[in-house]
Design brief:
Blueprint: E1 6-17, H1 56-68, E2 76-77, E3 80-83, E4 93-96, E5 106-112, E6 115-128, E7 132-134, E8 143-145, E9 152-158, H2 165-181, E10 194-204, E11 214-219, H3 222-241, E12 249-254, E13 259-265, E14 275-276, E15 283-284, H4 287-295, H5 301-312, H6 316-322, H7 326-338, H8 343-360, H9 372-383, H10 389-401, H11 406-412, H12 421-434, H13 436-443, H14 449-460, H15 467-478
Parallel strand pairs: 11-12
Antiparallel strand pairs: 1-9, 1-10, 2-15, 3-4, 3-14, 5-6, 6-9, 7-8, 10-11, 12-13
Bound molecules: adenosine-5'-diphosphate and magnesium ion.
């Protein structure tokens, strides 16, 4: 834990791979997982004389993002060369945007322990991805796979507005949800379609000036972001408290050792010798182009969340969880359309039992063996008292494993709730007769024995007796 005298400051740079069919400056395919270099066209491998041609779809997806965070869209933006040498970058420079990015300042809201907080987004710019070095399968050498070179990226840069690892993760999750709702990226973190650099610094509480930051590169899971930041914060505080100084540098997070390590001293913008790419003209966006994208925006997670609260009477917390994945929100709404049960009950089942079962089976909700129609009819049978609360979980498991309908399962397994008062009464009578001792205890003032009787009735009926009726009948007989 950190001592209260230190304040943590975090800004994130997130690289989102845009889901265009072809690369940002050529027609080569961007599909993931192909044989190495089969998608490395002449532009990807930087043959002399080739020229980049801007992919309109990449601009469209970037604008979609910009509009969804209320950002200023720069109708004139510039591509620049960012010069550095690396084996996976045969041109010797990356085409990016520097002074005039396509998306200017915007903002996003996150939920924190202290309520809603606004995180500023500084900018989002288009750039091309580099290739990959491949070390596996090469003896004392490395391979270079240029399939990824030229894949369009949107780099989203936040203001240094986050004050804890938890806030950074909340922001990152919100961003992840958003890009998937917008369908501008598949957000696949294992495949590197959504990766994050975390800039971390600390300062004494009350001090206005920021401390020196370290940048932790390429973290590819939410859990690692949290761990990497927490490790880095501890390291910086220990360093300063021991009389040392944080140096501005690029660090690498090692998830196996759970530590960050220095990679290189931080390069400054001037190290990259940015200059406008002479092969690409300024990108000019017409009003009509931007407006047509605005009209095509889907319902955003934030709007859907508010609608779930208004329309379905859910708590903001439940609405937030249900809308964090589009598929989950769709599933929930589909259940609601098919059931008479309260939306709150549907929400509890989707977030509770269903999510647990899906996690257990490592399945995404889109592949749920239990379709929304099945869950809806299960909820109907609970609402109309056909089945008791005690037995619902058993039916849920049976439903999970079979394609039978809820009603068939209830019938086949004889799981229908017993609501016939006469039947329950005769069971109660029998239990009271055979447990005379407990009856005497109850009459002697021991209220706790009541639960024993309820338990006996449930045991004898295999949990099928309607609990409300059992309680009523027992009270009538005993009091
Ligand atoms: P660069 O492009 O060199 O990485 P920027 O100044 O554009 O640097 O900042 C990159 C990121 O670092 C941004 O997300 C910003 O919010 C964050 N940042 C800047 N200064 C600090 C700081 N002192 N502590 C934490 N984050 C910072
Ligand atoms: Mg940076």
């Amino acid at each position: 834990m950190t001592t209260p005298t230190w304040e943590i400051v975090i800004g994130l740079e997130v690289h989102v791979q845009l889901q265009t069919k072809s690369k940002i400056f050529s027609g080569a395919s961007t599909a993931y997982g192909a044989e190495p270099n089969t998608q490395a066209c002449d532009v990807s491998i930087a043959l002399p004389g080739v020229l980049p041609v801007m992919n309109e779809e990449a601009a469209r997806l970037a604008i979609k993002f910009g509009l969804s965070i209320d950002a200023h869209i720069n109708q004139r933006s510039i591509f620049a060369r960012k010069n550095y040498f690396y084996p996976d970058l045969p041109k010797g420079y990356q085409i990016s945007q520097f002074e005039l990015p396509i998306v200017g300042a915007g903002k996003m809201e996150i939920e924190t322990e202290k309520g809603t907080k606004v995180i500023g987004i500084t900018r989002a710019h288009l750039e091309e991805d580099a290739g990959k070095s491949v070390h596996e399968g090469f003896h004392r050498s490395s391979g270079i796979d240029l399939n990824r070179a030229g894949t369009p990226l949107l780099e989203i840069v936040s203001e240094p507005d986050m004050r804890s690892a938890a806030e950074a993760v909340a922001y990152l999750r919100k961003l992840h949800t958003l890009v998937r709702y917008l369908e501008i990226s598949d957000g696949n973190m294992q495949e590197g379609s959504f990766r994050c650099d975390a800039n971390v610094s600390v300062r004494p509480k009350g001090q206005e000036a920021f401390g020196t930051r370290a940048e932790i590169k390429n973290i590819n899971s939410f859990r690692f972001v949290e761990k990497a930041i927490n490790f880095e914060v501890e390291r910086q505080i220990d360093l300063i408290e021991d009389g040392g100084e944080v140096v501005q540098e690029t660090r690498l997070y090692d998830s196996e050792k759970d530590e960050t390590r220095s990679m290189r001293s931080k390069e400054e913008a001037h190290d990259y010798r940015y200059f406008p790419d002479p092969d690409l003209p300024a990108m000019i966006l017409e009003d009509s182009f931007i407006e047509s994208i605005r009209r095509s925006l889907p319902e955003l997670p934030e709007q859907r969340k508010i609608r779930f609260v208004d329309e379905h009477g859910l708590s903001p917390m439940d609405a937030d969880k249900l809308t964090s994945e589009k598929e989950t929100a769709d599933y929930f709404e589909s259940v609601c359309e098919q059931t008479n049960a309260e939306p709150k009950m549907a929400a509890n089942w989707v977030l509770g039992e269903l999510t647990a079962a899906l996690n257990n089976a490592s399945l995404p909700i889109a592949d749920s063996p239990m379709r929304s129609a099945a869950l809806a009819s299960l909820l109907n049978r609970i609402s109309d008292n056909t089945i008791s609360g005690k037995i619902v979980k058993e039916i849920f498991s049976l439903l999970w494993e079979s394609h039978d309908s809820v009603d068939k399962i209830i019938q086949d397994k004889g799981l229908k709730q017993i609501t016939d008062s006469a039947e329950i009464e005769s069971i109660v009578d029998n239990i009271l007769k055979t447990n005379a001792d407990q009856v005497a205890q109850y009459e002697g003032g021991n209220q706790k024995v009541f639960g024993f009787f309820v338990g006996q009735v449930m045991k004898q009926t295999g949990g099928k007796a309607n609990p409300k009726q059992v309680n009523e009948i027992l009270r009538n007989k005993l009091d």
